[in-house]
Amino acid sequence: MDTQKIETAITMLLEAVGEDPNREGLKDTPSRVARMYEELLGGMGHDATEHLSKVFSAPNSEMVVEKNIEFYSLCEHHMLPFFGNVHIAYIPNGKVVGLSKMGRLVEVYARRLQIQERMTDEIADELATALDAKGVLVVIEAEHLCMTMRGIKKRGAKTVSYASRGIFRDDSVKKQEALSLMGVI
Ligand code: ZN
């Protein structure tokens, strides 16, 4: 990431909105924002596969549900935060993954300019491939500041997206079961 370029851009942005980038409170803002973006967009160029490489054998395992994985991301249309929870259900095909790895997987896709629907799909595809799971269901509930801070201004309004792969696509009973374990319905 070119932090020098971010600093230049933020200085120009401050000037463009009529601010004085040299005044006390703003002096270090461009460099602070540059460091912040390094962190917030730190998932770019990272491969989630490495986090899922360590799998455990679980021959007879039934559905696994990991819910309320907190995340913060930035919408690519406004560069404003959207944040909330990811719920993941999968039906293993002999392989399960450690729970902390799920959090890492979510981080990789959240820490970049995103749209919620794509993030949902990316997490589902990554899990379906890495675990060769029989089924994967990913649900994301998120609040978008570009909707609640501006525009229609409905604080607390949530966008819910979901992506299903394998068994969850065809078996509505299993899907219902997963959604109820997630606490979504
Ligand atoms: Zn937006």
Verbal overview:
The protein is an alpha+beta fold. It folds into two domains: about 40 residues, GTP Cyclohydrolase I, Chain A, domain 1 (Orthogonal Bundle); about 130 residues, GTP cyclohydrolase I, C-terminal domain/NADPH-dependent 7-cyano-7-deazaguanine reductase, N-terminal domain (GTP Cyclohydrolase I, domain 2, 2-Layer Sandwich), CATH 3.30.1130.10. About 40% of the residues lie in helices and about 25% in strands. It has seven helices and seven strands; from the N terminus they run ααββββαβαβαβαα. The strands form two sheets. Strands 5-2-3-6-7 form a five-stranded mixed beta sheet, sandwiched between helices. Strands 1-4 form a two-stranded antiparallel sheet. A hairpin with a 5-residue loop joins strand 2 and strand 3. Helix 1 packs across helix 2. The longest helix has 16 residues. It starts with a helix and ends with a helix. About 25% of the residues are buried. The mean pLDDT is about 95. The structure holds zinc ion (ZN). The site of zinc ion has 6 residues, from loops.
Strand/helix succession = HHEEEEHEHEHEHH
Give the helix level as a range of percent. 25-40%
Spans of at least 5 consecutive residues whose pLDDT stays below 50 are none
CATH architecture of the largest domain: 2-Layer Sandwich
What top-tier CATH class of the largest domain fits best? Answer: Alpha Beta
Tell me the major beta sheet. Answer: 5 strands, mixed
* Strand ordering within the main sheet: 5-2-3-6-7
Number of distinct helices: 7
Radius of gyration: 19 Å
Number of strands: 7
Number of domains: 2
Please tell me what the overall shape is: elongated
Overall average residue pLDDT:
93
The set of bound ligands, ions and cofactors reads:
zinc ion
CATH superfamily (homologous) name of the largest domain: GTP cyclohydrolase I, C-terminal domain/NADPH-dependent 7-cyano-7-deazaguanine reductase, N-terminal domain
Question: What is the fold-level CATH name, i.e. the topology of the largest domain?
Answer: GTP Cyclohydrolase I, domain 2
User: How far is it from the N-terminal to the C-terminal residue, by CA?
Assistant: 41 Å
